[in-house]
Amino acid sequence: MTQEILNTTTAFLKEKGFQNPQIGVVLGTGLGQLVNHLQVEVEINYTDIPNFPVSTVEFHSGKLLFGTLEGKKVIVMQGRFHLYEGYSLQEITFPVRVMKALGVSSLLVSNAAGAINLSYKKGDLMLLDDHINLQGGSPLAFKNVSNFGERFTDMCAPYDANLNKKMLAIAKENEITLHKGVYAAVVGPQLETRAEYRYLKIIGADAVGMSTVPEVIVANHLNLPVIAVSVLTDECNPDDLKPVNIPEIIAVAGEAEPKMITLFKGLIQQI
Length: 271
Known about the structure:
Layout: H1 3-16, E1 23-27, E2 39-45, E3 63-69, E4 72-78, H2 89-102, E5 106-115, E6 125-133, H3 161-173, E7 178-185, H4 194-202, E8 207-209, H5 213-221, E9 226-235, H6 246-270
Helix pairs in contact: 1-2, 2-5, 3-6
């Protein structure tokens, strides 16, 4: 990771029309429909962006979009990168650094996750209030990290309190159930064993997934206010565990997506 690499990518996107964005959005598994509400001005495949990783997951589309949403200039990542695809944590979070360099002042992240807290139900949404990093590394663990921000980044409040407060109010207004909880990030791509689900519950996780935490760490490194919401696609009860059904997980995410879109649009309007 060098300043030169970051500058090359940023200059390329500016030339393509990514001018003066205010908000960055990262869309997770099964949550790509927000782009239908975006007045798209520029759309670029990740494969065409210098130094960008390329999403290898079949239900992640792999496009960077720029346009207007709720009167704001927004960059949307339609498809994200994961540790389980073989990328490094620095590669996964490179787009966050690019969005910040282009000028975004807030970052909104979504993901699909499994409910560890069994009072949360399939199809519910959870606002991330805190997280547990079980991915075995840090996106800040590279030699020249201090060239990009404070090496020893404080994480006492990784999710922006002001944005969270706004999001909870929007959920209440729209009668959307929005739990508040702790997200555990694991490597994947395998799902968890019964013993692992019990362990996650013991250490305080309300939900588990394979993304988001690296991007949030880098947002904090860059002093970029960040918020994240999980769609809870399955209930992870170790005493009644069924084999994983990926098509069902994608379907549940799709059904919950209109609620996520309402929350994100409402928040973008207020930022």
